[in-house]
Predict the structure.
Amino acid sequence: MLLHSLVSAPGRTTRHKPALHATREQLNAKVEKSPQDAKLLSQLAVVDALINKETAVLEAKRATEMLPISKDAVNGPPIVVNLAVVYAWTNELDLAFDTLGPLTKTPYGIYYGQLKRELYWEPLRKDPRYEKLLTELAPRD
């Protein structure tokens, strides 16, 4: 998958630029057909985080407004997780950690294995707050 090949280095997308833009256009067409679908908009925001920071942040925030956790406790948290991904990929690390913090205590939020293993969080791994989050999420004996 294109995004998986890019997540370890969100700032270095030049080689994949044509495929990335094609993916973005396909996803944007789906969003235009279903403008009230917060999940699609959230996915588009993640792709746009590799292309245009301002657009990505606006889309991700809008998606969280469209389907807040208070309205949908199952589908809302993954949309907030995507907002954190957008912040991480656009070098807004403070906002990424501020967004992830509450998700560690939210059902369907972020889990230890996701934070530890998924490449989405690569931009956060050198920050001491990353280890703190992992410690909070670590399984207890």
About this structure: The chain is about 60% helix and 0% strand. Helices lie at 2-6, 17-33, 38-48, 53-66, 76-89, 93-103, 112-117, 128-137. The CA atoms of residues 133 and 139 lie 12 Å apart.
